[in-house]
Amino acid sequence: MAVDWLSSGEAARRLGVSAATLYAYVSRGLLRSEAIDGRRERRYRTDDVTRLKRRRDVGRKAESIATHALDFGTPVLESALTLIEDNRLYYRGSDAAGLARTASLEDVARLLWNCDATPFAASNLTPMTTALRRAWLAAATLSPVDRCLILLPAAAALDHPSWVEDRAPMLETGVRVLRLLTAAVTAQPPSALPIHDQLAAAWKVAPDRAHILRAALVLMADHEFNASAFAARVVASTGANLYGATLAGLAALNGPRHGGLTRRVSALLEELRDTSDLDGDLARLLRARIYIPGFGHQLYPDGDIRAATLFDLLCEAVPDSPELAFTMHLAKTVERLIGRKPNIDFSTVTVERVLGLPRDSALALFLLGRTVGWIAHALEQAAHGALIRPRARYTGPRPGS
After folding, report:
1. pTM
2. In whole angstroms, how far apart are CA 364 and each of 111, 182, 195?
3. Which of 48, 159, 222, 345 is catalytic?
């Protein structure tokens, strides 16, 4: 059978990438190419280009794979939870930016988990509270994230195992996990109150500003197959319970390239807060090739809708905030210098600073919001019933070489 080929220019045009990225695709085995006799140029198989374009376009219309980021956008798995399309974010078809203005995290949990209010009414934390008291005391002086990492395994040993064959106990366990992590963040006893109200009380946020916490939680509830959601989903696919899946997500989120990036944004804002020459200092950082965290997102080429929504709410609620004015000035300066708009990490750190929240609150908001997504992915994977087991493309020495 004859093989159709494309020139490098045509292959790059169809995929919307540079020639350098084409070479990277070949090195990863995603495309096949061959040299053209007597010329330096290579040609690429048409069927490979078509297959790769189709795979990249599944839910990734705005995606551009960086040559250094192995498999950004792969593997592709089916999911009915979250859609990122045309610079918008949707939870089961509902616009997340719209939900951020009206819904609570519990509302979004019911939407993503595809359930009614029954699990929230049925979940009972009383038997676990006494047993967890020692763990509470041991974790009292730690950061919110570290408290979560201590309390969740302790709770897992005491709770119903909620194996994946039994959806009703899984849903109730999901509610308990969410409430336990909220208690770990606030350092208060578990409560059935709305999570944003618990946070507002613990962090002493004025009632007329608590809706900003609620919106931040909603906007971070899920983001398709990000690193932590994929980690949670892989663990769920083994038959592990929701505690195991959530712990996997939590461990991944804490990394400095994922949710832990908020700490790097905080450090940047702290460093630049009192500068007398913001433009000059940022330019010097860029000339030194120092990474500016909190800007740009591959899935939102026109700007992260989550960040834009949070900034709109902050401008409405606290328009005269000096901290908000500073971060907006910084964001505009960075956009002018490198052409990137603020992302969710930058905006949640801005919420932390504008509302005067405790240190690491931005990451705590991310953690609690995303817990809903981890549980949703675990539930969906449990219903699917298959083990996630990708294959490796071997690049080491061949046997006998």
Report:
1. 0.79
2. 22, 9, 12
3. 345
